Amino acid sequence: MGIDDSAWWQRGAIYQIYPRSFFDSNGDGIGDLDGIRRKLGHLVELGVDAAWISPFFPSPMADFGYDVADYCGVDPLFGTLADFDALIAEAHRLGLRIILDFVPNHTSDQHPWFLESRQGRESAKRDWYIWRDPAPDGGPPNNWMSNFGGSAWAFDAASGQYYYHAFLREQPDLNWRNPAVQDAMMEALRFWLERGVDGFRVDVIWHLVKDALFRDNPPNPGYGPGQPDINRFQQIRSTDQPEVFDIIARMRATLAAYGDRVLIGEIYLPVERLVAYYGERLEGVHLPFNFQLIAASWHARGLDEMIDEYERAIPEGGWPNWVLGNHDQKRIAGRLGAAQARVAAMLLLTLRGTPTIYYGDELGLPNVPVPPELAQDPWEKNEPGLGVGRDPARAPMRWNDSPRAGFTTGTPWLPIGPQPELNVATEAADPRSMLALHRRLLALRRAHPALAVGGYERIEAEGDLLAYRRREGGEVLTVVLNLSAREESLDLPAPAGGWRCLVSTGLDREGPEPAGPLRLRPDEGVVLAEG
Ligand code: GLC
Predict the structure, then answer these.
(1) Residue among 101, 167, 168, 201 whose CB has most ligand 1 atoms within 8 A, to mutate
(2) For ligand 1, what atom is nearest to the CA of residue 327?
């Protein structure tokens, strides 16, 4: 694909904003929409193309906005619809796209639809949710578990039935087999499309349809002590059902009526199932989020194999994408350490496919320890001590090195954490910082179609070196990454004019390379041009 026939969401980079934690404009300790608007300059200077904003819709906040009580509004905590309109107008003026988080699998238990549904078996909206009679012993209808611990079925004494909730009991699942539900949700998409949003990231899209017969999930042989409840069974009946693809196609068609909008699906599935979500005739999501770098162990040979397998699994015409972190996962700097996090950034931003950067990872933010009494995440509260808590990755963005990091004038909803030097102001002034590296790599992506849209070619390497080429038109760029803390060298035949280093993760190596094998310092990655 050439740069001219690429879509913005193919050549561009996406930046995820968790709105509670980005910038607080009114001093209540929680970020808001006006805060995002005021900080859009950071995204422009970083060099990303779109912001995906996690939910800001009216919500009781049982799961911090992933429990939506009104799909067509803004929670007062985050501002007003007018604030949203101002945000999107400013973003578009700056050349940034805005992607919303669409949460169709479940609503809040306070959504008017659910309040009506639970009125009783005769309710007109009864079938909008998933109600089942108890098992013969009076227990839950089957063995499906909640992702946040315990059974996924909640008993409603008044009607004598259970309702299904794949997440919290405050998040009842909608019944997507009901056409009225589909119609109502397409309306919600159109509400935001009309307001100019450029696309949606669809929450747990592989969950939308469940087995029509509600059969038990089979046990998971890999389950053992210390693991969360959700690992007890393989989720093969409760998720990833064939009927989901018609629904996704309907979402896609709804977007298509508005032109160049993007549909992204949150999908945690093995690669062969993941790629099914492009759709058989590419009528599925444009980007099935690819979380393999999050799950992968950090070894060059394994990563090389994984990238190659993914490249080969993508259907003709499908476009790859890569993710290093999000609001549900441990931060990359915490997982790999500061030095390898730089190598990971180079990998993310030089692989073929759309990269998504999680806010704060461009600063190298750590996982921020949260003492149990300050825990916010409902999953952590339901299953404490297992290490499932998501608060550490949701700590406030850091704008400067002041005690509240320039995030708020009030009390931040989560602690700011250690290492105050990791912040936008300090790093912007340091030409070797993690922020500087991100800006440099994103600028390079924009300047070189080979990186933005070019082909991917594996290079044979050994040990902890990962190497590949990106090629577009006449341009070839070579990326070599040292995933170890030792010096490594690679005997790669030099091109006629020799190698020229465009950027190193150390930001201290540019220009012609000496002849002979390529030498990589510990934890170093380089992007090389020919001649
Ligand atoms: C997705 C979200 C996560 C949320 C869950 C339930 O996985 O990313 O934060 O808790 O769905 O909506």
Answers:
(1) 167
(2) 9
Is 137 a residue of the active site?
A: no
| pTM score | 0.98
Please identify which of the residues 63, 173, 203, 464 carries the catalytic annotation.
203
Query: Which fold, 112-164?
Result: Oligo-1,6-glucosidase; domain 2 (3.90.400)
Ligand 1 pocket: which of 16, 63, 267 to mutate (most atoms within 8 A of CB): 63
What the block records as the tokens of 261 is: 């909008």
Residues in Cβ contact with 242 at an 8 Å cutoff, skipping those fewer than 6 apart: none
Domain boundaries, the chain: 3-107+179-442, 112-164, 456-530
CATH annotation of 3-107+179-442: 3.20.20.80
Three-state DSSP state, 153 = strand
pLDDT exceeds 90 at position 531: no
**Dist. CA 474 → ligand 1 center (Å):** 43
pLDDT, one tens digit per residue, over 404-438 is 999 999 999 999 999 999 999 999 999 999 999 99
Q: d(Cα 529, Cα 531) in Å, to the nearest integer?
A: 6
Catalytic status, residue 266: yes
From CA 366, how far away is CA 422, in angstroms rounded?
A: 9
Distance 468 CA to ligand 1 centre (A): 34
Please count the other Cβ atoms lying within 10 Å of the Cβ belonging to residue 94.
11
How far, in Å, from the CA of 185 to the mean position of ligand 1? 18
**Cα–Cα distance measured from residue 18 to residue 408, given in angstroms and rounded to the nearest whole number:** 15
